[in-house]
Amino acid sequence: MDAKTGFFYLFSVVLLYAAFRVISARNPVHAVLHLMLAFSQAAGLWLMLKAEFLAIALVLVYLGAVMVLFLFVVMMLDVDIEQVRQGFWRHFPLAASIGVLIALEMAAVLMGGFRGIEEPKAAVLDAAAGQGAALSNAKALGQLMYTKYLYPVEIAAVILLVAMIAAIALTLRKRKDSKAINPSLQVHVRAADRLQLVKLEATRAAPEPVAEEKQA
Q: Which helix (H) or strand (E) holds 198?
């Protein structure tokens, strides 16, 4: 058994264990952590299949954003586990039937869908040397995105930017109890508005001492 096969079995075993713990863990935080572990192992399998872009997207999108968001949401929400578990056995037959159906479909695809398929090879013509150079799928995808599909990519980026700005604008609320000072007011302040000169006499006579009452 070579190193590639060993890593495949290692990633697969850890992935299956993490996926099982996602659905069997009693603590939702532990379930989210095991889901992050499952995604990382799946990214390793994508790398072994030479699908670098899918592996990087899985790590950046799911591990770097979605799973971290889920983890913070689960940790900040006061989830009542007992209330969530109510009705579990009532819906268990339907859930088990759907799970078995999905497992059979995946088994049919994995057993009969990848036989006889050779490893794809990509090559790009070097204009200077006139020779073919090996090209990874991530590089080929990048060339397509920024040459043939450049305008759709830019339009999608602008739409995402507008959506992000709109989300920030909708959720941003000015706090009334905040004591922050507006910098524009500090810049336009004048000394006459803050300082008032009062004329006082240079010298002033000391007050006369109050005569003490004589004791009887």
A: none
**How many CB atoms lie under 10 A from the CB of residue 53?**
15
Select from 64, 69, 7, 72 the least CA-distant residue to 39. Answer: 64
Is there a contact between 50 and 137 (Cβ–Cβ < 8 Å)? yes
Q: Which helix (H) or strand (E) holds 45?
A: helix 28-48
**pLDDT at 2 exceeding the cut of 50:** yes
Burial 159-180 (b: 16+ CB within 10 A, else e): eeeeeeeeeeeeeeeeeeeeee
Please state, in angstroms and rounded to a whole number, the distance separating the CA atoms of residues 30 and 190. 59
DSSP assignment string, 163-180: HHHHHHHHH----TT--P
User: What is the DSSP secondary-structure string of 82-138?
Assistant: HHHHTTHHHHHHHHHHHHHHHHHHHHHHHHHSSTTPPPP--EEE-TTT--EEE--HH
Task: For 112-155, write each residue's pLDDT tens digit.
Answer: 755 555 554 544 444 434 444 456 777 888 888 888 889 998 99
Q: Is the pLDDT of residue 211 over 70?
A: no
| Phi–psi pair at 213, nearest 5 degrees | -65, 135
Q: What is the pLDDT of residues 183-199, one digit of tens each?
A: 777 788 777 777 778 88
